[in-house]
Amino acid sequence: MTxxxxxxxxxxxxxHTGHFLLRCDDCDAVVGMGGIDARDAIEKHGxxxxxGKARWDLMPxxxxxxxxxxxxxxxxxxxxxxxxxxxxxxxxxxxxxxxRHLQAWRGRDYIDRSSGLTHLAHAGACILFLMWHHSxxxxxxx
Length: 142
What we know:
Elements: E1 10-14, E2 20-24, E3 30-34, H1 36-45, H2 61-77, H3 90-106, H4 119-135
Antiparallel strand pairs: 1-2, 2-3
Helix pairs in contact: 2-4, 3-4
């Protein structure tokens, strides 16, 4: 008797018999029903309207941590003041570096010899740097 929908916008409606229906506001599916006890039970668990909001739960955290390891390695390898934000011709150079790491990975060379970290994590760091430089064409500390 319960239809499942993926929407989060629901409203309690009372039927002519005094029972409660939990109906989806988007597709009108019945997503719950019952007497006052059922309504209380569902409302105790609460509702969260997440539609249209960023889905941080989809982030592959282990892989993001691998990229952070590359950033940490770079912070140790390069002296202070040699920041990735101040590299001359940054977009061309980070694109080239990203492609070298992707080509190595594509050739089944998975670990960068100089860092001991994966080529894909290095490529991910390069993508982040490219994204930053694309968003900040004049540089800066944004």
